[in-house]
UniProtKB/TrEMBL annotation:
Record InterPro entries: FtsW/RodA
Places the protein is found: Membrane
Keyword check for Transmembrane: yes
EC number: 2.4.99.28
Membrane-topology annotation of the record: Multi-pass membrane protein
Pfam families associated with the record: FTSW_RODA_SPOVE (PF01098)
First-tier enzyme category under EC: transferase
Family assignment from sequence similarity: Belongs to the SEDS family. FtsW subfamily.
Name of the protein in question: Probable peptidoglycan glycosyltransferase FtsW
Keywords: Cell shape, Glycosyltransferase, Membrane, Peptidoglycan synthesis, Transferase, Transmembrane, Transmembrane helix
Length: 395
């Protein structure tokens, strides 16, 4: 049965292996980290896990399978629809968004009552849209009016709308956009203009935005932790304790103590819990998995026969790995506290679903690369047979 299911999956086998490993790690880590949450809610850990996170993990794997079967070229058309939906949703989130964890990043879905983080949709929408636009405009990519302004208009609008509620996600998405512009052959001069414009927008959001006090407090706390009150550095301090007590091999699965003190041990700081329980060795394994993912994705990009597929795989893989290392950097004290989850590991419904779709699209591009390689090999064998058949026999 397993072999039959494996035969139905296409794309890079290493990426499939990474998906399975990260999913298993996610189930174990969230199972441990949600112990305190389950106790506070008066529920068994097993019930909380099975009814929420495990279901989303299985749904995510299902989304990966479905997305990888769809020809990635269809995402070019889908990206236009996503952008049309995303921008009004981001506006709606800013005005009517639900407040969770001191931030208005969520929209409550009517009837079912679940919350939906619009920035997750925006990331997927903008990357696919940029890949489409850069491919479509390649013939006149240096033209400011026809190419540069339309492309950068979409980037700037999405950046500002996300940044007003979630600056860390906006900055990472802006960085991914710059990388895509470089790959898409936008001139260095135009990219420098983009960076300058992005810096101006950043200053506007940072000093005049609705969450300016929160952003300034986090930066100030990170730069001068010794000058702050303990309540402002509480999360970072508890994460450092988890790292320090974890040691090389950790306390063992389920033996975390800092899960009782960290506000969000199952999402934003799950990497700290992993290190506490699995040690430095466990943290290094997680890092290696994401680095291997990036390496395999780069191989897909270099082999992709079409520009759209290459740009799509590049943008999504950069987004996933940058987000992963941003989450890990915060957990180990190398960056200010943000609300960025660890892709495919942290507990979170919308994050898990959209991350899974991103993985599925990358595998869809990989599937096309494999099929193209098989077709090329088959044509070469056919041509070789024809050539050999034309050689006259030697008497």
């Amino acid at each position: 049965m397993f072999q039959a299911l494996l035969n139905k999956t296409k794309g890079d086998r290493w990426i499939w292996l990474i998906i399975i490993l990260l999913s298993l790690i996610s189930v174990m880590a969230v199972y441990s980290a949600t112990g305190t949450l389950a106790y506070k809610k008066g529920e068994a850990v097993e019930k909380l896990l099975l009814t929420k996170h495990l279901i989303f993990v299985l749904m995510g794997i299902g989304m990966i399978y479905i997305a990888h079967l769809l020809d990635y070229r269809y995402y070019a058309g889908i990206s236009k629809v996503l952008m049309i939906v995303t921008i009004p949703l981001l506006f709606y989130t800013l005005i009517f968004g639900t407040n969770l964890n001191d931030a208005s990043r969520w929209v409550k879905i009517p009837v079912i009552g679940l919350t939906f983080q619009t920035s997750d949709l925006a990331k997927l929408a903008l990357i696919t849209f940029l890949a489409r636009m850069l491919t479509k405009k390649q013939e006149n990519i240096k033209n400011v009016k026809e190419s540069f302004i339309p492309i950068m208009g979409s980037v700037c609008v999405v950046f500002v709308l996300i940044a007003l509620a979630n600056l860390s996600t906006a900055l990472m998405l802006f960085g991914v956009s710059i990388l895509l512009l470089i790959i898409g052959r936008i001139s260095i001069k135009q990219i420098a203009i983009v960076c300058a414009g992005g810096f101006v927008l950043l200053l506007f959001v940072f000093f005049l935005g609705p969450r300016r006090k929160t952003y300034m407090s986090r930066i100030n706390t990170f730069m001068h932790p010794e000058m702050q009150h303990s309540d402002k550095t509480f999360q970072a301090d508890q994460a450092k304790i988890a790292l320090a007590t974890g040691g090389v091999f950790g306390k063992g699965p389920g033996n975390s103590t800092q899960r009782n003190f960290l506000p969000h041990p199952y999402s934003d700081f799950i990497f700290a819990i992993i290190i506490e329980e699995w040690g430095t060795v466990g943290g290094i394994v997680i890092m290696i998995l994401y680095l291997v993912l990036l390496y395999r994705c780069i191989k897909i990009v270099t082999r992709a026969p079409k520009a759209f597929g290459a740009l799509l795989a590049a943008g999504l893989s950069f987004s996933l790995t940058i987000q992963a290392f941003a989450n890990m950097a915060v957990a180990v004290g190398l960056g200010p506290v943000t609300g960025v989850p660890l892709p495919l590991v942290s507990m979170g419904g919308t994050s898990m679903i959209f991350t899974s779709v991103a993985f599925g699209i990358i595998l869809s591009v990989s599937r096309d690369v494999e099929e193209n390689a098989k077709l090329t090999t088959k044509e070469e064998k056919t041509n070789n047979k024809i050539i050999v058949g034309e050689i006259p026999a030697i008497a």
